[in-house]
Please model this.
Amino acid sequence: MVIPSASTRRAARALIAAACLLAKAAAAQAPDIGAAPPPPPVEPSVRAALDAERMAAILATTAADAHRARMTGGFSLVALGAAFIPVGAVAQSSWNEELGIALWFNGILFVSTGMSMLILPNELETLASNLLAQRQVAEVWLPRAERALAEAAAKSESARTWSGTFNVAIGAVSVGLGAVGMAIATSSTDRGWAAAGAVFGATLIGMGVGDLFFPSAAERALALYRQGGFPPPPPPPISFGAVPLPGGGAVAVGGRF
Model:
């Protein structure tokens, strides 16, 4: 019987190890029969057309939501103000002069604000109308639409930041002056005007906080597009609003029909 030498045994083990490594490498490179083939690459023109459809849908849906919110808010303010004015006039002459002044004064402000909301479209509504009316080849229209939406979102963010800061500051001053006026007033008429100023200031603070912490419709549309998202579902049919008043407050309920 021939016994292989130590060097021969080492060489044989090395050959076996090399054969095992080659077999593993070949198995790793072999195609997986059960795996699905990778999707074919999307042509740039097809991708641009899909993104243009998504941009158009986002613009149309977000603009419609902004229009609906503007109409709901405007009608709610007009209705609330229209109710405050006669009640305030009666209250001033009959049973509570300070509450009456606060009611009819802020009622006039609510009606004015609501009418302006009903008449003036917001920036996204105008932008969406113009872009959708001028829609053309996707490769040409999409970059222009994205650039216009980005510019509108930047302007809207800057405007709401300044507006929110201004409203909070003026509102805080108005609330402070109203509180001081009610404390030092010597007649119910003076206290009524002071209360009206305080209520007006509280309303301004609420509007300013909303401007500072809630992005505009253009900002939401741009963020949704850049995240690869799709138009949001319809908003809930019922909306609520509240306004502070001396000794309590008023609540408004709006519906979408």
